[in-house]
Amino acid sequence: MPGPILVTGATGNVGSAVVERLLARGVGCSVGVRDPSVLAPRPGVTPVVLDLRRPETFASAVIGAGGLFLVRPPAIADVRPTLCALVDAAAAAAVPHVVFLSVVGAEHNRLVPHHAVERHLARGHVPWTILRPGFFAQNLGAAYRTDLRDRDELYVPAGRGRVAWVDTRDLGQLAADILVDPSEHRGRGHTLTGGEALDFTEVAELLTRALGRPIRYSPASAFGYARRLSSRGLPLGQVIIQTLLHLGLRRGHAGTIDPTLGALLGRRPRTLADYVADHLQLWRP
Question: Which secondary structure element, helix H or strand E, spans residue 68, and what is its range?
Fold first, then answer.
């Protein structure tokens, strides 16, 4: 019997969805956290000490794992001593498969940290699958939530770029299913988007209808957006990466609809309207 699946980022949007799907399938999982004492006990979930900035925690976290779900925390820009080193530890422990959550276009874009992780996996000795999702619907309830709730505003440097919004609940389901049965996915990279592309003006209109109050889209400059992120205390590396990813929207980097997600799930991917309807409380004043 394979061991439990090790999930990094288990308190985040995708990682938590991976855990839910594994449990629904009756598969045990371990979750890597800096301090296991902060997690409430839960059947089927085993906390393990894993701190990506402390390589000495890697070997004990991956030993006996039946797979690894790997996600880059936004605050980590230098992936070589962190994510890449964890991949090496997984290979040394003979972990049977790694699913890495990358981003759309990372295989061609050296400016994003995910690129280096993808190359490290390709050159390494552990079986892998790379998921390259587009922009998350959940950004509305995370990165954009404060502006929407307090200012009735979407403030991003996206111009008129369209986004094929993808729901992290769908990504978590797919990642978990691959980790349980990776046979058809070894050595493959999947581009994953939702089934419709909306620009930010259309998103603001959708939110206006759903929330019953006017929501406006304010196209930000790169400098203005970076300054607002910095004012919220984000580390410089995270500010730069987040700004670059949003600037890519202007050039259409996230607007292409790819049918892969729906084909692999065997159903229609969730829409942005689905996400908004399920989470209206996030944007209540």
Answer: strand 67-71
